[in-house]
Amino acid sequence: MGKIALLFPGQGSQKTGMGREVWENSSLARETFETASRLLGFSMEDLCFTPNDQLDLTEYTQAALLTVSVAIWRELAARGLAAQGAAGLSLGEYGALVACGVMGFEDAVRVVRQRGILMQEAVPAGRGGMAAVLGLSGEQVEAVTGPLEGVQVANYNCPGQVVISGLREAVDAASAALKEAGAKRVLPLNVSGPFHSYLLEEAGQKLGAVLEPVALAEPRMPYVTNVTAGYVTTAAPVKELLQRQVSSSVRWQQSMEQMLADGFDTFVEIGPGRTLAGFMRKISREATVYSVENWEQLEQLPL
Predict the structure, then answer these.
(1) Which of 26, 192, 196, 247 is catalytic?
(2) Collapsing DSSP states into helix, strand and coil, what is residue 89?
(3) Residue ranges for the chain with pLDDT beneath 50
(4) What is the pLDDT of residue 1?
């Protein structure tokens, strides 16, 4: 492999059964699940492995996804996977922080549990919304939504896929305007809140208070932050960036373009699904991408 980056997926990639095979085969994975269960006061195995009504609730989803991703990463690291950088989409940034040695898993899982609760409670159900815009560039979406109140770009995922977020009626109005501007499709997302919008600024401030006592270490390798699409190489700005991230746009496409420009050519997506691999295919056809969500993929990863 060439210059390797670890990628950690965000909310929306969760599914029942995620991480089970790795948990069954890896003592490191089982230890990760046990730690999460002990700290959070509920069975992470039950949440992830058995059908239930909680896995898709933000207050549970985020801790579950982090646990599964870190469990897989720990087994890969023990087998010798060495990377030179990392990034994570929204929630996934906490997986990157753990992999880079900035935040310990115990602190990370406690923080994301609170992050999920704060985001869940930030806006009354039904008041906010999100929609995926297909077929327009980020600049084209900005041109349409910029003059509108109550809506903004939430995610720059990849060429031709941008997500908007805000007040439900504002998202509906923007969706109609974007179709008129040439969007191929505008798809309402089944989410519990207007994530990565100004409506979550207060939730971000509250998260800042949660982060305040958390001890951080200097990164063992740099990671690219969603807020700026730039590298973070010291611990100093991390808490402020995590606070801002809750209500800021996720600049994923720009983050990947930054890493590609700096010579990263191999990307390992760690966690459920292949969402980030799909984005990368639209960002760069030259990049090599591996997705590791189960034991077979883990064992087949060329180290």
Answers:
(1) 196
(2) coil
(3) none
(4) 65
